[in-house]
Specification:
Protein name (chain A): ABC transporter ATP-binding protein
GO molecular function (chain A): ABC-type ferric iron transporter activity; ATP binding; ATP hydrolysis activity
Order of helices and strands of chain C: EHEEHHHHHHHHHHH
Keywords (chain A): ATP-binding, Cell membrane, Membrane, Nucleotide-binding, Transport
Distance between the termini of chain A: 31 Å
Helix content of chain A: 10-25%
Organism (chain A): Palleronia pontilimi
Shape of chain A: elongated
Chains: A alpha+beta (about 375), B mainly alpha (about 300), C mainly alpha (about 290)
Number of helices of chain C: 12
Strand content of chain A: 25-35%
CATH topology of the largest domain in chain A: Rossmann fold
CATH superfamily of the largest domain in chain A: P-loop containing nucleotide triphosphate hydrolases
Oligomer: heterotrimer
Family (chain A): Belongs to the ABC transporter superfamily.
Structural class of chain A: alpha+beta
Shape of chain C: globular
Radius of gyration of chain A: 24 Å
Strand order of the largest sheet of chain A: 6-7-8-3-9-10
Structural class of chain C: mainly alpha
Radius of gyration of chain C: 23 Å
Strand order of the largest sheet of chain C: 2-3
Largest sheet of chain C: 2 strands, antiparallel
Chain lengths: ~375, ~300, ~290
């Protein structure tokens, strides 16, 4: 197990990059702490698989360095980095039995047969496949195959990290929960450093201690699920996480006063702005409907079971708000209010902290 | 999106003269393996192309030069061999004849094979397995077995020395092949598409032509390629079934043997000209060749 | 899942009629000849299974059959490994890949007698590059005179002609392997050999079966190329089954024996086709799991 450090890492697939737009991965500096479970979250094509493959050594970065426990492994091939990776589609060696599959990485490393036998048995128990060890891997279901690929990674007891590249894509929905629970349990019991790539926010938020959100080739935020939810560092994070995503309005900010769509209101605190384009982001959960505030019209109401999503029109801007299941929704004209502390201010799409901002302490987790 | 913030700087200012980068790039292209593959491919292609080059080389020489001395390239470049062929109807009509029956065969093979392949890919019916197997045995049949009976059959129905005779004879091996390849491609199209189309009110014919055929267009292209290819390269049947009017170029080539010995230059030129249509056809289907050779079953 | 539908026969009917015309009628003619004898003048009389008995005891036919089996065996032993090896080294994508594909397919589209002609010229010691070079190197090479030269040339020609088919099939199989397999193998520290043995070979099994059997069938009925190159000689040393059959039927006009020969030849092919078909359908079933 190891701490993984990325130093000024960037990657381009282009031979002769002209500018940032040629980079699949923008320069980043980042530490992955030993024994923590991370999720790498972002839409397709945001560079998350590129980043994962650089860590595993399948891809050599065009710029920067990768360190494992302070040691430079940038030029080390995959096999020497001692990492395990589980891919989107289950990879098993069809012609081998489950046992041979699990033993394969050990035999390739020249371990004595008795050690191989022991470890395979142990991993077989860990992934709960003892009774099918001698079956041919080809005939098994997709989730069993994924467990084998996971087992092949864990059979080496000194793996530095376990990497997952959207491992649940081809798994049946009811098996997804089971596999994810098993992964969390394995993480809990053995404490491997885990990096889990996904585009599914629920998967990311439920699996990981820390979520790294990527967008357009760069890391836009790393934080706990609560941080991502309460204080999205970038309008994209606000929009991407949460269902529905954060409302983002173009706004004029002037001292402690803000103006959205012709209505001025009080922010109650100042922001250190540098004069860029400003926006205000408010989670639908932090919007209340009432008699005063910003005038808006209710367009439609979607009942999703546990709560209602109200779609409003505010002087041409679309607003989504979450209301309790029992709440009565006014028909037509109403007003929109922002819950105190639920307002985030963005300058050029990046979050600007309020002058009196306190660190997040409360541990409420009502994200999803 | 603007990016002036500290957490997301552009990386462009790192680029030139960075030693580490050079190292990393060198590793990204593992030298020995790629070179090994290139060497293998170059050697193999050399092996393939050398005999063809030699044919072209001969076709550009005069007979005097061919027999006069050994040379790796034509010293006195001449196109007279090609001129001989392209100005003499008894030569170039050979090409025309070949093209006619090859195209006829391709059209016939595909038009009968399409509905049959659809039936095999979608339905169970009495004797389907046996029928499919029987079709395949014809693909495997040695043309030599059929040469004489074909000759008698087509003579007795008055089709001897016609293009259609050769086209029909080549159906013996091309139709089974066409059914086989098309079936492989059709199996890859989900059956739900058929059902949706019927629900949308398409008749079988309308569905087949407007929806299904575009879906397997690449399969049809590949099949046409193979029918073309096998009809084009076959000689035994086409030679047996023709004498003058429909004589294929491949058979015409035997003319170069005369009292004065072989006319090597013209023979080589005729050979080169038979390669051209194939080369053109390959170019058009190059992206599907590999899948096609696997008969749509990869 | 397929549905039962007897009307599907209607869709198959055109093929049936066409192939029946091209195959069944001629085949009946062959059967007819095989059980009759003639003294010329188009007068035939019943000969029963005489010709079949004759052919079964004919040294000439057995010789041709052994030559045929030896030829098919040798070219398979060369073309399959070589084709796989070439496929493993083919570029995966890009312009270069297209170029290689087109160049490799070239021999497959050359009329078979031209293939013979190409090698006929190429191998001659006076005007051919191969023959001339070997001659200069002091190798005793002459494909029209020497037994070994003739066999070597016929085999080289077939390898030249058809290895690309095996390579293209194997390549198609390789193309269907997702990158993740190779990446997993690197993580598992698999050797190059292990990657081939446990990933590439299993994935190529289906297409290689097709390749081997296609090559077996086609080599088993080879006629034109060796006929143009050596005419079956020197002596009878490259007289394969089809060449012998055509000599007998069209050259000597021994219709009865030739017909019996044809039917037995066809029977051998049928048996092999059947094995082929069974293997293929079983493979398809396994893939469908």
């Amino acid at each position: 197990m190891a701490k993984i450090t990325l130093q000024s890492l960037a990657h381009t697939y282009v031979q002769d990059p002209k500018g940032p737009e040629d980079f699949a991965l923008q320069e980043l500096n980042h530490d992955w702490n030993d024994g923590e479970a991370y999720a790498l979250l972002g839409p397709s094509g945001c560079g998350k698989s590129t980043l994962l493959n650089i860590i595993s050594g399948l891809l050599v970065p065009s710029h920067g360095r990768v360190l494992f426990d302070g040691q430079d492994v940038t030029d080390l091939p995959t096999a020497d980095r001692n990492i395990a990776q589980v891919f989107q589609f289950p990879v098993v060696y069809d012609t081998m039995t489950v046992r041979e599959n699990l033993a394969f990485p050990l035999r390739n490393r020249g371990l004595p047969p008795s050690d191989v036998q022991d470890r395979v048995e142990r991993v077989g128990r860990m992934i709960d496949m003892t009774d099918v060890l001698d079956r041919r891997a080809a005939g098994l279901t997709a989730d069993a195959k994924q467990k084998i690929s996971l087992g092949r990674g864990m059979v080496r007891d000194d793996v530095n990290a376990l990497l997952f590249d959207e491992p649940l894509t081809v798994i049946d929905p009811h098996m997804k929960w089971e596999l994810r629970t098993q992964l969390k349990k394995l993480h809990h019991d053995f404490g491997h450093t885990m990096i889990y790539v996904t585009h599914d926010q629920t998967e990311a938020l439920t699996f990981a201690d820390k979520v790294v959100v990527m967008y357009d080739g760069r890391v836009v935020q790393m934080g706990t699920p609560v941080e991502l939810f309460e204080r999205p560092a970038h309008t994209f994070v606000g929009y991407f996480i949460g269902s529905p995503g954060m409302n983002v309005f173009d706004a004029k900010i002037d001292g402690t006063k803000a103006q959205i769509a012709g209505t001025r209101f009080d922010l109650k605190t100042g922001y250190k702005l540098k004069g860029g384009a400003t926006k205000i982001g408010v989670r639908p959960e932090n919007i209340r409907l009432g008699d005063h505030g910003l005038p808006a019209r209710v367009k439609r109401v979607e009942d999703v079971g546990r709560h209602k999503i109200v779609r409003l029109d505010m002087d041409g801007l679309e607003v989504a708000a979450v209301a309790g299941e029992g709440a009565t929704i006014p028909d037509g004209g109403t007003h929109v209010q922002f819950v105190e502390g639920g307002v985030n201010v963005y300058e050029n799409d990046w979050r600007v902290a309020a002058e009196n901002e306190q660190p997040l302490t409360h541990d409420k987790k009502d994200a999803a | 999106m603007t990016d002036q913030t500290a957490s997301a700087p552009g990386a462009a200012d790192h680029l030139p003269g960075d030693v580490k980068v050079a190292d990393a790039n060198a590793r990204a292209k593992p030298g020995t393996r790629v070179n090994g593959s290139t060497v293998v491919m170059v050697l193999y292609l050399l092996f393939l192309l050398l005999p063809i080059y030699w044919l072209i080389n001969m076709s550009l020489k005069t007979n005097a030069e061919i027999l006069g001395g050994f040379s790796l390239y034509p010293r006195n470049l001449t196109f007279s061999n090609y001129e001989t062929i392209l100005t003499d109807p008894s030569w170039y009509m050979g090409y025309v004849n070949s093209m006619i029956y090859v195209v006829m065969n391709t059209v016939i093979s595909i038009s009968v094979a399409l509905p049959a392949a659809y039936a095999f890919s979608r339905y169970n019916f009495m004797g389907d397995k046996h029928l499919f197997f029987w079709l395949l045995t014809n693909r495997m049949a040695p043309p030599a077995v059929f040469a004489l009976p074909f000759f008698q059959l087509y003579s007795s129905v008055g089709l001897f020395d016609t293009h259609i005779a050769v086209a029909l004879a080549h159906c013996l091996f091309n139709v089974p092949l066409a059914v086989w390849i098309l079936e492989g491609f059709m199996r890859g199209v989900p059956k739900e598409i058929d059902e949706t189309a019927y629900i949308d009110g398409y008749s079988f014919g309308g569905f087949f032509v407007k929806i299904f055929m575009p879906l397997i267009a690449s399969g049809i292209g590949v099949t046409a390629f193979f029918c073309f290819m096998f009809s084009w390269v076959e000689l035994l049947l086409s030679r047996t079934l023709t004498s003058v009017d429909a004589k294929p170029i491949a058979a015409t080539m035997t003319r170069t043997v005369s009292a004065s010995g072989l006319d090597w230059g013209v023979l080589a030129a005729a050979g080169v000209l038979t390669i051209v249509p194939g080369a053109l056809v390959i170019f058009f289907v190059r992206n599907y060749i590999a899948k096609g050779f696997a008969l749509g079953r990869v | 899942m397929k549905t039962d539908n007897q009307r599907a026969w209607l869709l198959v009917l055109p093929v049936l009629v066409l192939v029946a015309f091209s195959a069944v009628i001629p085949l009946m003619t062959v059967v007819n000849y095989s059980v009759q004898d003639t003294f010329g003048n188009n007068q035939f009389f019943w000969a029963g299974l005489e010709w079949f008995r004759d052919q079964l005891h004919s040294e000439r036919m057995w010789d041709a059959l052994w030559r045929q089996l030896a030829f098919s065996g040798i070219i398979l032993a060369i073309e399959v490994p070589l084709g796989v090896f070439v496929a493993l080294n083919m570029p995966k994508k890009g312009v270069w890949a297209s170029v290689v594909l087109v160049l490799m397919s070239l021999p497959l589209l050359i009329p078979w007698n031209v293939v013979g002609t190409i090698w006929q010229i190429f191998g001659r010691s006076d005007i051919g590059l191969l023959g001339y070079t070997l001659d200069q190197l002091g190798v005793d090479y002459n494909y029209t005179q020497g037994f070994y030269s003739a066999w070597a040339t016929v085999i080289a020609m077939d390898v030249w002609h058809w290895t690309s088919l095996v390579a293209l099939l194997a390549y198609a199989g390789l193309q269907s392997i997702p990158d993740a397999y190779y990446q997993a193998a690197r993580i598992d520290q698999a050797s190059r050999w292990a990657v081939f043995r446990y990933i590439e070979l299993p994935k190529m099994r289906g297409v290689l079966t097709i390749a081997i059997l296609l090559r077996f069938m086609d080599s088993f009925k080879i006629y034109t190329e060796p006929f143009v190159l050596t005419g079956g000689g020197p002596g009878n040393s490259t007289t394969f089954l089809s060449i012998d059959l055509v000599k007998m039927a069209l050259g000597q006009f021994d219709l009865g024996p030739a017909a019996a020969f044809s039917l037995m030849y066809f029977l051998v092919i049928m048996v092999i086709s059947y094995v082929f078909y069974i293997v293929m359908t079983n493979l398809d079933k396994e893939d469908g799991q």
